[in-house]
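Ops channel
N.P.: pipeline sanity check, posting one input/output pair.
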């Protein structure tokens, strides 16, 4: 389990207000959103979320960097008559999808879709996040449909990038 230090400090409003995702919120709603989140810190190497786990939380990266990875199965190949041939067994390969810096967010796919996590996210540095529960984000979507639209656009873009990166790993 990651070594987490949680705090309920009331700072970070400027961080929320500068976020591209939350730019349509007024000051009062930014304060309300900040109050509904909690700060969670992670040490380098901590796995913040794992691919395949149920996801109920969304993270806004306040400081540090995280690496987003997935695992894909790449076919083994054997040489017969000079032609590579895929075998039944494959090799699992870790694929780095992104390195995220302060201001970025992650956990959005599970929160939007209700499906399991689509990637691992690991702290590369000392990381501080603001974590929001699904219910908070869903309530925000109801009041600010533009936030949902922005988030959906990011998900589509990230999905395209993932497909390209996975395609590039196949020999």
């Amino acid at each position: 389990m990651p070594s987490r230090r949680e705090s309920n400090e009331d700072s970070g409003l400027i961080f929320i207000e500068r976020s591209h995702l939350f730019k349509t919120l007024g000051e009062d709603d930014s304060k309300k959103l900040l109050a509904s989140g909690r700060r969670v810190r992670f040490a380098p190497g901590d796995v913040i979320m794992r691919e395949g786990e149920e996801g109920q939380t969304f993270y806004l990266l306040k400081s540090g960097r995280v690496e987003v990875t997935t695992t894909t199965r790449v076919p083994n190949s054997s040489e017969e008559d000079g032609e590579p041939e895929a075998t039944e067994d494959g090799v699992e390969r870790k694929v780095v999808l992104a390195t995220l810096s302060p201001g970025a967010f992650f956990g959005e796919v599970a929160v939007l879709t209700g499906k399991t996590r689509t990637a691992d996210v690991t702290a590369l540095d000392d990381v501080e996040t603001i974590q929001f529960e699904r219910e908070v984000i869903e309530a925000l979507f109801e009041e600010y449909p533009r936030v949902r639209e922005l988030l959906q656009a990011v998900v589509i873009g990230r999905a395209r990038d993932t497909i390209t990166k996975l395609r590039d790993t196949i020999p």
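N.P.: looks fine end to end. The longest strand covers residues 83-100.
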